[in-house]
Amino acid sequence: MSGSITVMGLGSGNPEHLTLGSLRKLKEAQQRYVRTKEHPVVGWLEETGVGFTSFDAVYEAKEDFPSVYAEIVERLIERANRLPEEQEIIYAVPGHPMVAEATVKLLRERCPAERIPLNIIGGESFLDVAFARLGFDPIEGFQLLDASDISAGTFNPRLHTLIGQVYDEFTASDVKLSLMDIYPDNYEITVGHALGVEGSEQIVTVPLYELDRVSGFGNLSLVYVPASMDDALRIRTLDRLHEIVSILRSPGGCPWDREQTHQSIRKNLIEETYEVLETIDEDDPDHMREELGDLLLQIMLHSQMEEEVGTFSVFDVIQELNEKLIYRHPHVFGELSADDAEAALRNWDAMKAEEKRRKGIEPERLSALSGVPRDLPALMKAYKLQKKAAKVGFDWEHIDAVWAKLEEEVLELREAVKTKDLSEQTLELGDVLFSVVNAARFIGVDPEEALSQTNSKFVRRFSYVEQRLHEAGKTPGTSSLVEMDHLWEQSKENERR
């Protein structure tokens, strides 16, 4: 057995709040370490003859806080392993060891595996002082956040929020920017420095936009964001969207929304998807934002319908998606590697196949063409079917064979047209289009995208023809083909210029 580690809390910063038991244990200890000397109690203890070995140098040597905390824990464990069983290391930390203390979390994970006894002695937390000095009751709803690990999604405006580890103006600036994603610029927040430490305490209330202009940030600084029941503050959250959709579908909600079923709004999902695609083609971010919202609404409505009968909710959808993304990207979240997009795709396919096996499906026994959605547009479906067949070797060896096949199908279509048989003409035209898709695949062009661009080009040129005819007091219906063809060529020439 090795020596033990006892973690002791030094309290929020007021030496008078250090317990007699903790003070006595510190004085008796032979090996005393402190995470940082940047704490009022440490200075007071050293004045009374209780010295420490600090890890402040580690902060200077490492590039980020996780590396600092990992190094401190590694050194403590190494030193404990060199001690006889009856000896202990005292490791002192600011505040309470179990509140916002990353090194203690790591020690609790590591020590059992290392067979090192770990003891925790509490101390006054900065939370105790904050509740009293900032004047709010945590029973009303409260969240504690780390300034180094926050984003807009971590905030719940209905809860009182304390943000710790706001070490400097740069961190305060990051906190401000994250808060501004949810709160208005003039929302009043409070900055607390050295709460409860006589002669050092400062409490300043400022509008949010001035947060990083407050002076005095340090190891004992925090930011307090008061709770608010204003729904306008939740307007950017998924929770609020979920709430709105559930209200719309409720007995007191919208009659139209209540009556909808999966089938009745099925076509809406398709239409909204194509409207998003249109904004992408037009490179219109503002319009894209709106249309993506409309598409998200369809997902919310379908999820809400299932939530009402108890099968799943939109949060289950999000969970499954998160799990899938993590699982299918082992080169990002796991131990595999992928040097390029092709390798990443191979990883994705391998993990996808493994998911099927876990569900009792044998990928090897599935058709090579499985997984292509039934209702895809025909051109897109042809492209995907060909790609899947090509993966298993069912493909032309050279593009010359593709051209020969295309010419063959065009000749067969010509012959079918002579027969006046509509059914045969339809089949032969389909073969021509399928061969064109093959050619597109061989040259690395998505046929759906290519045709979409040609459609847009046709609309653009024909609109030019209509505009010029209108300027001349004419319409396409009152103009000759020669006139329109001339204007069409003008449009082409303008584009080339």
Question: Which strand order spans the largest sheet, edge to edge or round the barrel?
Answer: 3-2-4-1-5
Give start-end ranges of low-pLDDT stretches: none
- What is the residue-mean pLDDT, rounded to a whole number? 90
**Strand-residue fraction?**
5-15%
Q: How far apart are the termini?
A: 84 Å
Helical residues, percent? 40-55%
Structural class: alpha/beta
Which H/E pattern describes the elements? EHEHEHHEHEHEEHEEEHHHHHHHHHHHH
Apparent shape: elongated
**Counting H and I runs of at least 4 residues, what is the number of helices?**
19
Largest sheet, in brief, is: 5 strands, parallel
The count of strands amounts to 10
Radius of gyration: 34 Å
Descriptors:
single chain, 5-stranded mixed β-sheet, elongated, 5-stranded parallel β-sheet, 497 residues
Summarize the helices and strands and which ones pair or pack.
Blueprint: E1 4-9, H1 20-28, E2 32-34, H2 40-47, E3 53-54, H3 56-61, H4 65-81, E4 88-93, H5 102-114, E5 118-121, H6 126-134, E6 142-146, E7 160-164, H7 169-180, E8 188-193, E9 202-207, E10 221-225, H8 238-248, H9 255-259, H10 266-281, H11 285-308, H12 314-327, H13 330-333, H14 341-358, H15 378-391, H16 399-419, H17 422-442, H18 447-471, H19 481-496
Helix pairs in contact: 4-5, 8-11, 10-11, 15-17, 16-17, 18-19
